[in-house]
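tl;dr need the bound structure. longer version: we got a ligand (prephenic acid) that a collaborator sent over and nobodys looked at where it sits. i said id run it. heres the input, straight from their email, havent touched it
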Amino acid sequence: MTSETDLATSLEPSNPLAAARAEIDALDDALHDLVMQRAEVVARLAASRAKAGSPSPLRPGREAMILRRLLARHQGPLPPTALVRLWREILASSSAQQGGFTVAVYARSPDLDRLAREHFGSLTPLRSLPTASRALSAVAAGEAQVAVLPLPEEGEAPEDAWWMSLDSPRLQVIARLPFLATGPDSLPEALAIAPGAPDPSGADRSLLRIEAMGERSRAQLTGALTAAGLAPRLLQLRRDGGLLRALAEVDGVLEAGDPRLAALPVDRALPLGFYAVPERGVIG
Ligand SMILES: O=C(O)C(=O)C[C@]1(C(=O)O)C=C[C@@H](O)C=C1
């Protein structure tokens, strides 16, 4: 069917195309009403003092709870990835409504830009910076509110191992991107870093930096963490002269002052923040 016949037949009232389009128009109006209504509620929230004094409008834990709830009730032909993309745009514009934010991305690969865009929305200003430390400095200086950095990998170049010098608790990991990944194609992943602590989502994982002088094997560190109730899901080690630095990922929320940290036989144990456990969709 050409577009002219398409248009002509759609004008006939008994035509199925016209009927479907009339239905779509009514649904679009209903969706639009709800989106406008949602923005009104966010405006009310922003005007109230409920979030006064916090450095950023972003509540990544709350966002993860919203997305998990919607994914759990999701049905029908719309792919879950499309559902998440729609809501990421809604959530980003909702944060923008509350003051807005700029994202500093370490421009190591176009994937990081893409992950930042998909997570923080297509209208959010992105600044691509040549190093991880420049992206973190932009956040520390208030020129950006979030940094998007690559997920740490063992053995990466020292200048890429940004976690070694992350100034926590001033800056902390707040999110892991993408929130929904449906297959190996969605790799690589990234972490988002922002001022202050994230909000828990009910299913979180924490990052912990450990520093120890002298020799410790991976098995010894794993044993010490496990004995303290912090069994690591992942443990990355870096040796620098006599100093051993380790990055541990543990289940749950781990914050400064947690009594489990006091039990660790290391020189320093610094929580670096936490993030909502991402959803891993069915590969199909
Ligand atoms: O719940 C909040 O604190 C909000 O600001 C609302 C809202 C939303 O649109 O649902 C917006 C931004 C936050 O990152 C989380 C949730």
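gonna send this back to them w/ a short note. The chain has one domain: 33-46+56-280.
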